[in-house]
Amino acid sequence: MTQPEQFDVIVMGLGVGGEEVAGRLAEAGLAVLGIERGLVGGECPYWGCIPSKMMIRAANALVEAARVDQLAGRATVTPDWAPVAARIRDEATANWDDKRAADRFVGKGGRLVRGTGRLVGPGLVQVGDDVFRARRGVVIGTGSSPVIPPIEGLAGTPYWTNHDAVELTELPASVAVLGGGAIGLELAQVFARFGVRVSVVEGSDRLLAMEEPESSELATAALRADGVEIHTGMRTERVSHDKDGFTLYLAGDGTVRADRLLVATGRRAHLEELGLESVGLDPAQRYLGTDDRMRVADGIWAVGDVTGHGAFTHIAMYEAGIVIQDILSGGGAESRGDDRVLPRADYRALPRVTFTDPEIGAVGLTERQARDRGFTIRVGQTRLPDSSRGWIHKVGNEGFIKLIEDAERGILIGATSAGPSGGEVLGALAVAVHGEVPVATLRQMIYAYPTFHRAIGDAVNNLK
Ligand SMILES: Cc1cc2nc3c(=O)[nH]c(=O)nc-3n(C[C@H](O)[C@H](O)[C@H](O)COP(=O)(O)OP(=O)(O)OC[C@H]3O[C@@H](n4cnc5c(N)ncnc54)[C@H](O)[C@@H]3O)c2cc1C
Q: pTM score, two decimals?
């Protein structure tokens, strides 16, 4: 029997996290095998963050132009999807071709194998008929894919996922969006701003159910202002599709009809296909549990969506950094170095941004989460339209800052920043939560006038 080809590290899945780990370890001189069954780079550059933000940039430009009427004269805009589709095809994805990313990895000294990787024993990964051995360990960065809910009639219909939405070359007249989370809302607003009739159906009683109730209210008002029909607290019991499009039958007797149906009801990792049982791990888990060095087991690390710490590119990159340092320091199956100085994963200050207009950024705990965890808290809020910059901004100035203080320690443990540039303003709040900056210090700080972030000072003064 031929011996499996050997590498120092095998990386399964070269999405955001896996590509970073594989590339940096190869640059550091390790023998690295990267296995990818789709496109090197993963979801974010081809069907996620980047193309969706290009769509949002275009849709927001349309609405900004329309706001001229209230600020600077008259503007007439004629929406056209063609430049958006062309930009995504040509600038973002090179027509969904990963040659540059693949060449970049190989140029760093990595070996790329295309196909589906599966663990077949400790340090052993199979791709097709080939088995490879990892001397130091295996890194799993296999990401996530859309959850398709088990709604009667849905399977087998030509529903869209984010892939179809991003690859669109022509807009339909109407779209129903199943799911009122970040991805569903961002895409719903884009389509509405391009003149598509959009309905959002969400089973929870509010949009962005994981965020502050004020964020849900703001998102609901913003989408309604764009003409989006919103159904919250509505379970979809059945879906049918015929030549005229989709019909969603909601609990009660409501229906929603649309030409197209976008399913955006969350994402899940597919652990059942990874061969985890061959290394003594349970393939029926939802996510790969890790320690704070991203170690799943001896000689196995995980990064990104598959770990369940938050489906964000910045989480995948953050975790990749921890894995890289752990491996380069000698961590792994064969040797364990002195790891006292290595970074440990810490999700206290996890930032997330829903890129609707207004943007809704949040970091750390919501008020509810803080109370549920037993913190004694103070809450401080301020409305953006009441700030100088919000008042100057006028049309499109909706938003707020909300702060959650751990009253015993006198530090922020959560914050929401919603409004124009809400995601950018969030940066200051993320520093405060991450760095445990005393609220007394935030109170003494000088906030530039008239910025949106100056409203943080107002919210700090309102903590009670
Ligand atoms: C529409 C949309 C918008 C988003 N917007 C944002 C945003 O604005 N900001 C943000 O931070 N995040 C955003 N995200 C989330 C972000 O894209 C993901 O969190 C990120 O891509 C996760 O990276 P990853 O490395 O875990 O996995 P992925 O990027 O999903 O990559 C996993 C890779 O593994 C490959 N793979 C899977 N199984 C195997 C196997 N067995 N063998 C070989 N290869 C395999 C897949 O083909 C894939 O290329 C968005 C996602 C979507 C869908």
A: 0.96
